[in-house]
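Example record for the data management plan.
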Amino acid sequence: MSTTEDNVREILAKTFPDKDLSSEDNLVTSGEIDSMSAIMLVGELEDEFGISISPLDMTPENFASATTIAALVDRLEQD
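Corresponding structural encoding:
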């Protein structure tokens, strides 16, 4: 697991303390992350990593799991 993914998991746990986001189930299709919570999560990710997540990046595929979120963050940090 990458450092980015560890940080993403911490952000998920802090942002959604009442939800079990530890599994690799698809967070979007399972209903754990909906459009409103995704916006909240984007703000946390942007603050933590100093990135800007565009609406084009806000896809179910990019927010499916901590792993896919970390991959998005890594990609945006390189841009």
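Summary line stored alongside the record: The mean pLDDT is 90.
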